[in-house]
Amino acid sequence: MVQAATQVYGTAGDMESVNFQGRTDPLILMESLIPHGINEETIFAHIEDFKQRYFLYLKNAITHSEAILLPGVHELLQALTEYDNIIAGLLTGNFYQGALIKLQHFDIFKYFRMGVFADDTHIRNEMPAIALQRLNSLTGNMFKAQDLIIIGDTIYDIECGKTSGAITVAVATGWTDAETLLSHNPDYFFENISNSYSFLYTIKELRNAIELKVQ
């Protein structure tokens, strides 16, 4: 992102110090560049050029990176495909193509039937409403916010879920420590998902509880 921003906007601004946690990609650009005199209108006027350069750099870099797939992730996603009443989706601050590059590297993008990305909105708290629209179009059903289970590793994921009325599941697998996550009162909390069966059991129970409430 630093390379792409420097080429397109002439500077990466504060990007080296901006906290990426829970930020959407456009918000990272704005927080990095606006303090250096590049306004929001200019950022979005050139964002497609930025995206294409960023995706190219990302695709080349990820093959040589130290990125790893955390324990339990593949097993959990695979197990979720066996349940007709659960739809796995992405709600991410990444641009669509960026998410695709990252998750295809680990061969897990295929497990997500739908998603909401930074191309749709740079405001994370708007994403659940967009997810509901897409779920309704995908299935022909009328989902509500209470049907969503939002899983994330930042306080912004918890906030996003609570603001929309979704169930929140926090996991301490990112840079935010368990104490900070718990202080924001997620509905459920896991240190990690290495025990994918325990995690899956919770998701199944939540899904069943939602269905019983509807009935």
Folded structure, characterized:
- This protein folds into two domains: 2-62, Orthogonal Bundle (DNA polymerase, domain 1), CATH 1.10.150; 73-214, 3-Layer(aba) Sandwich (Rossmann fold).
- Helix content is 48%, strand content 8%.
- It has helices at residues 2-9, 25-33, 40-45, 47-62, 73-80, 96-104, 127-139, 155-164, 178-183, 196-214, and strands at 89-91, 114-116, 149-152, 167-171, 188-190.
- The strands form two sheets. A three-stranded parallel β-sheet has the order 3-4-5, sandwiched between helices.
- Helix 1 (2-9) runs antiparallel to helix 4 (47-62), helix 4 (47-62) runs parallel beside helix 6 and helix 5 packs parallel to helix 10 (196-214).
- The longest helix has 19 residues, at 196-214.
- The protein is globular.
- The N and C termini lie far apart (47 Å).
Keywords:
globular; DNA polymerase, domain 1; Rossmann fold; 215 residues; 3-stranded parallel sheet; 5 strands; mainly alpha; 2 domains
